[in-house]
Predict the structure of DNA-binding transcriptional repressor PuuR.
Amino acid sequence: MSAQTRAENANQILWFGDNLMTIRVPASAGDDQISVIECRMPQGETTPLHITLSGDEVIHMLEGTMQFFVDGKDFPVHVGQTVMAPKGLPHNFRIESTDAATCLIVTQGAEFEQMVRQMSMPAPTDSLPPRAERTPETTQRFFDTCAQHNIEVVGAPLR
């Protein structure tokens, strides 16, 4: 048995829009390319309905509450609960907590992590997120970047 004690690019902190993403375990750390990303998101944050084509997503709640929609089912997720969003099934979520929510996102394969890295900016821990206006151009860039990383946007955000 062996333990990974140091991984290249581990604990890298990024601003992904208004979300503070910390790469806890990069896909490059092991042969199975398992990625663990801690994500802190503000109230009301939501994702478009999307399908991950390359692998399942596992989301474990550390703080707060999220509302999930996975394969036609709508349900709340609280601290300590875990959601599986199987590859090929449409899913999205919205942050319900009055302050923010923090979760771990675990994926196999580097696609999600690479998309996050491509769309993010480095973030010192004491910084505020950059306030980038959402324009048709930035939205299209997001959709294109998702598509490059086997994430298909198929619908509107959860409202």
Notes: The chain has one domain: 12-157.
